[in-house]
Design a protein that fits this description.
With about 160 residues, the protein is α+β, with helices and mostly antiparallel strands. The chain has 3 helices and 7 strands; from the N terminus they run E-H-E-E-E-E-E-E-H-H.
Amino acid sequence: MKVKNVHERRISGSGESMERIFESLGTRNDCIWPRNWPPMRLKPSKGNLGRGGHGPIRYRVIEHVRGKRIVFEFEQEGLSRGLVGVHYFELLTEGNGEFIIRHVIDVRLRWPAFLLWPILIRPLHDALLEDALDNFESAVSAMPENAKSVHSPYVSLLRMAVGR
């Protein structure tokens, strides 16, 4: 089964600030990745096409365009076994100080991911990505606290079950 999962936000701000925050992804000074989720770790780094992941999801960097795009290919181990394809973050300039920050998963589901995607991976992934986009938006603008994403009871239950 083919899956294309897209999360994005349109945000106003300065290009320099947006690119700096975008480049923080996967570093010690990460402004995007939510602190209450397993951290993204890459060795050696995204600029050096590092390997790593977050929690039991494993991937390697296959493309990095500074301040614009980072593409990860899923590795066939851990919870990413059966996710055959890529996920990526991109920062698109829309003009007039507007940008789109986007994350896309573009995969074919094989065993065991075709079973785990709808009941475990997608709900957790969707919640994590909305938290990450909240962080990005908060880092570049004055996002009100009440505008941040709220997890569903099902996601909260899954997070308790997997220890997060």
